[in-house]
């Protein structure tokens, strides 16, 4: 090949590359905080969980309406009896580095989760597993000690690559958590803390390459800044706060954006640190519950875009107990209970609410609670923190009076994670230290029940007992209002939201 022809071909390749780059589509998103660990078994904060969802897959997943469980990395699954679960894995799955996904990766992920080398709240999901056996490279058999109602849901956990991590000595601090290799539709290209996180489409994704080439997450802690970027079309998808939606959006916004609204699978609560003596008196917790006006909180913060939360399980699930109503504000009864507990004007009850500014709503909710509780003589101090500092310095070390937080929940709840006394541990989700022997027994009994009608009845009884104990003040269930730029096509809204078919999205 002569020199002139060689350089002409190099120039053509370069030109085609530049054209492809110019036409590459990028989905612009925002996240309120830096992800702590981009590792599916260690992702306990919302930013990490959201991003790892694009990078990793579980063996199974919910369908778009969150009603049925369907295959993900598993092409087929079935039970042998009521204690053995068989997964037949897809043979066309590659890790982002090109290596083949096999049953070894599933076994490795399970062994990692049950080891004492990590602290993961998801480990408890595997406590009933007796054995995980590789039948061949693409078939695995899971035997349980006893029938387990969440046997399938357990395997929605993202799977880790054995070939990369088998010699890792400290996964908690591993470089893998910032340089993850998954099987997902996108792979990590760039991670700039407090700036930008960029994902690129994985060409060899087993369900087909995503039609949008890149996803760019902008780390923007301030909610108003996120909204202004959305409004100016610097973001393609974003949440819209109810007050903004009702009072501040003009017609030109709706010309550029489609709105999708649904009740969220989450609730917000004020959790008492029950390890502290002052919150161990049930009269105090009952008084604080009666002192607040939940509907007023919603009217101010959400207008008509939320509902009062009445307990630990969400409406629409088998676990929800419709007979339990939210307490109505009763100032006189609240004062009476506080007086019985030894508090008065000269010796008022004083506590602190800690929350994060990662949520634009919760700092205002804390101020409203502070105002409402003042009516019964309770003095509330507020501490508003950056998200990671809040988690690492307050929430997980249990160094708080109360925390204003929320939980996102599965359509099939697992009370063990939040309410069993054994989940009151480092890395566990029983953040408030709730201990109730009756609840422990009921939870342990429920784990062995497969018949859904019996399981629902037991959950609803737990709902009643937990709400009576007041470990939390259950506050509100917000609606999710999502604005999507009209230049994004192929969105199919469903009960689970809009993201279930994101690999089919296209951007004009």
Summary, kept brief:
The chain has 508 residues and is of the alpha+beta class.
What would the keywords be for this entry?
single chain; 508 residues; alpha+beta; Dipeptide-binding Protein, domain 1; Dipeptide-binding Protein, domain 3; eight-stranded mixed sheet; four-stranded mixed sheet; 30% helix; globular
Could you tell me the number of beta strands? 20
Number of helices: 15
Task: Specify the structural class.
Answer: alpha+beta
Overall radius of gyration: 25 Å
- Quote the distance from N terminus to C terminus: 41 Å
Description:
With 508 residues, the protein is α+β, with helices and mostly antiparallel strands. Helices cover 30% and strands 23% of the residues. The chain has helices at residues 3-23, 46-55, 103-114, 162-165, 223-231, 242-247, 251-256, 282-291, 294-301, 331-340, 362-374, 387-395, 415-419, 437-447, 452-469; strands spanning 26-31, 60-62, 69-71, 74-80, 84-89, 129-136, 139-144, 186-192, 196-201, 214-219, 237-239, 257-263, 266-272, 306-308, 350-356, 379-385, 402-408, 472-485, 488-489, 506-507. The strands form five sheets. Strands 11, 12, 13, 14, 15, 16, 17 and 18 form an eight-stranded mixed beta sheet that branches. A four-stranded mixed beta sheet has the order 1-10-9-8, with helices on one face. The longest helix has 21 residues, at 3-23. The radius of gyration is 25 Å and the shape is globular. It starts with a helix and ends with a strand.
